[in-house]
Design brief:
Elements: E1 4-10, E2 13-18, H1 31-39, H2 51-55, H3 66-75, H4 78-81, H5 93-96, H6 104-117, H7 123-135, H8 143-151, H9 162-177, H10 180-184
């Protein structure tokens, strides 16, 4: 039976986790350099002070703490970290409190870039991007919104109007020109 460790996760919460053995095959010694290429900062300068996690507005709600992700980046745990960075809200509060001037939010953005280039894309990203090129927003429009807009004295959104269709066309052109559609696998949704 594996040993179980009690881990403090914030507030008054604790959880039990199993010890996990990491072997050298899981480590990528060049991972920190790859992150630096995209983030412009060296994760190895992190002091592990915990300020980033302490000021993170979502840290109490998630299992992956900023400080822990940075530590895993330092170790070279590429596979582990590439599935965790989507929880960052990019509010940059961590950067404001980082004594090493690391900018953990930019590290998370760099991890997103690396993950996408390696084909590690969460389904919600594809859904949001598909909605963007179809409707001009990341969430599919709900007919209820037009009722609320009318109650507020606003005009309903007319998706059949030429002006609306022109905006959607511009979004599709931008997504295609930047090759974002191919990068995340939604090229069939983009009409060029």
């Amino acid at each position: 039976m594996a040993e179980v460790e009690k881990v403090f996760i914030g507030g008054l919460h604790e959880q039990l986790t199993e010890d996990k053995v990491i072997n050298e095959k899981q480590l990528d010694p060049d991972f920190a350099n790859l992150i630096k290429k995209y983030a412009g900062k060296d994760v190895m300068t992190c002091l592990q002070c915990g300020n980033c996690t302490g000021v993170c507005p979502i840290s109490l709600k998630i299992d992956y703490k900023t400080r822990n992700i940075i530590k895993c980046c330092q170790f070279g745990l590429r596979h582990y970290t590439l599935g965790t960075q989507w929880v960052c809200a990019t509010c940059y509060r961590c950067y404001e409190h980082c004594p090493a001037d690391l900018n953990p939010a930019e590290i998370m953005v760099a991890l997103r870039h690396i993950a996408i280039r390696e084909g590690i894309i969460p389904p919600f990203i594809k859904t949001a991007a598909t909605n963007l090129v179809k409707y001009g927003q990341s969430v599919k429009p709900d007919p209820e919104i037009d009722k609320i807009r009318t109650e507020l004295g606003l005009e309903p959104v007319h998706s059949h109007d030429a002006e609306y269709k022109a905006v959607i066309r511009e979004i599709q052109l931008l997504v295609h020109a930047t090759k974002y559609d191919k990068l995340i696998g939604i090229q069939e949704e983009v009409k060029v």
